[in-house]
Amino acid sequence: MLETSARLLALLSVLQARPTWSGLELAERLDVTPRTVRNDVERLRELGYPIEGVRGPSGGYRLGPGAKLPPLLLDDAEAVAVAVGLREVHGIAGIEESTASALAKLEQVLPHHLSRRVTAITDTVGAGPVNTDSNVEDPEIDSATLSRLADAIRDHERLRLTYDGGRLDVEPYRVITWQRRWYLVARVVPAGTWRALRVDWAEISPMPQPRFEPRPMDVDDYTTFVVRDVASSGWSVHARITVAAPAVEVRARINDAVGVVEDVDAHTSVLITGADSIEILAVYIGMLGLDFTVDSPTELVEHVRLLGRRYAAAAGG
């Protein structure tokens, strides 16, 4: 049988693994008697761990929230996953120091064989850039901003935003990250229209706002909405392209994130699309594989002409 201190740590580890355990399950898991479990639970409570007793047929014990974070007891796979994840955190400003501190604490107590494994994984596993579709630097979002948004969504609190040169009052519902960008899915007040708002473009008023009665989408619809809405309103640069092909053919060559396609006649359609820069937008439409005319903006027209001259020169024309 384990010594008392080791047994208490084992009990604490088991209680962290799932919400509720019966006394009999704990006794079997730790190979002790139910009476020992009761005594050990009392010892942990005396040490300040808020272990709650749950009554009823499905009752037992559970580790409740306390005034401080208890020691997290991770198995080997969990420890490796957390360490690798901390080393790969990107895209959120303001948490670099906290991330480094948490990683240092974890790596300090990792057993030698796990420390070697984490180092081996991070030294030998690589990945291409997450965002290969833009020559614009990826925006970083301050962790305090994400916390503010999450609190407002949880508490059903409206937000007042300065956005795109104007003021928006919105009911926030979800934060979606897609292609290294963060979007707030919200309903505009009082219009009632849904928007996918770039978080890095928004300034949130610190003043408390009134609560609202939520009218959410289905959970799976938020990401789909962001992908479709960004095509028409979420890019830094938007363009109108006339394509020498029917809309059904254009749609077969793109996904919903690329743009909105409308029929003009049996042989022509219009593509409304966008990107984070003129240069990458020109690449997008060049990959369409169909004849097209750039209607707007003027900057894209000029850039396509420039590319035409470069390609012609490269081909000896």
Short structural description:
The chain has 317 residues and is an alpha+beta fold. It contains 11 helices and 13 strands. Helix 2 packs across helix 3 and helix 10 packs across helix 11.
Give a written overview of the molecule.
This protein has 317 residues and is α+β, with helices and mostly antiparallel strands. The protein has four domains: 4-63, Orthogonal Bundle (Arc Repressor Mutant, subunit A), CATH 1.10.10.10; 76-124; 141-233, SH3 type barrels; 237-314, Alpha-Beta Plaits, CATH 3.30.70. It has eleven helices and 13 strands. The chain has helices at 4-17, 23-30, 34-46, 76-87, 96-109, 112-124, 143-155, 221-233, 247-253, 278-286, 298-314; strands at 51-54, 60-63, 92-93, 141-142, 159-163, 166-178, 181-189, 194-198, 202-204, 237-243, 259-265, 268-275, 292-296. The strands form four sheets. The protein has a five-stranded antiparallel beta sheet with strand order 8-7-6-5-9. The chain has a four-stranded antiparallel beta sheet with strand order 11-12-10-13. A two-stranded antiparallel sheet has the order 1-2. A hairpin with a 2-residue loop joins strand 5 and strand 6 (166-178). Helix 4 packs across helix 6 (112-124). InterPro entries: CBASS_pafABC_assoc_protein, DeoR_HTH, HTH_11, PafC-like, Tscrpt_reg_HTH_DeoR_CS, WH-like_DNA-bd_sf, WH_DNA-bd_sf, WYL_dom. Residues 4-63 form the HTH deoR-type domain. Keywords: DNA-binding, Transcription, Transcription regulation.
